Amino acid sequence: MKASFMELIRQRRSVRAFEARPVEKKTQELIVEAALRSPSSRSLNPWQFVVVQDEKKREALAGVKPHGGGFLAKAPLAIAIVADPERCDVWVEDTAIAATYIQLAAESLGLKSCWCQIRLREDGKGGMAADRVREILSIPDDLEVASIIGIGYPAEEKPGHLQSELDYGKVHDEGF
Known about the structure:
The protein has helices at residues 5-11, 25-36, 55-62, 91-108, 129-136, and strands at residues 47-52, 77-83, 112-117, 144-152. It is globular and about 45 Å long. It is 30% helix and 16% strand. It is built from five helices and four strands, in the order ααβαβαβαβ. The chain is α+β, with helices and mostly antiparallel strands and 176 residues long. The protein has a single domain (26-152), classed as NADH Oxidase (3-Layer(aba) Sandwich), CATH 3.40.109.
């Protein structure tokens, strides 16, 4: 039985510990399809996706940020989201939407995921994380690296956030 959208987002949590088993090819294809179906401004689709299963590459990607990227080494699947900034002026927004589609697709398929911000993050060695990702994955210089989503079968369970934890004070009716 498929979960409703509200059930899906109520249970979704970022998970950074994954089982060692690989994500099946058919499941990967569904996640990629979701990414390719994500909305983009004026349907310009400035994004591209690099699917990474190779253990050495995932370990290298895990080291591109001093904090927040280590989980990628143990995620059996990683998807780097890159974009052509010349194609669309709102590529940042478009890649964020695609990342969300990837995460929700993974969740709907019984997987967990975690977002690793790359854009505008330092690598801890005096450079930028995006440059290191570009080198590891042979990404052309004219493309920007937005983020990497680590995906896999969870090795930890986290309950969804309770409705009582939601900050409804951030919601304003008819104006601020």
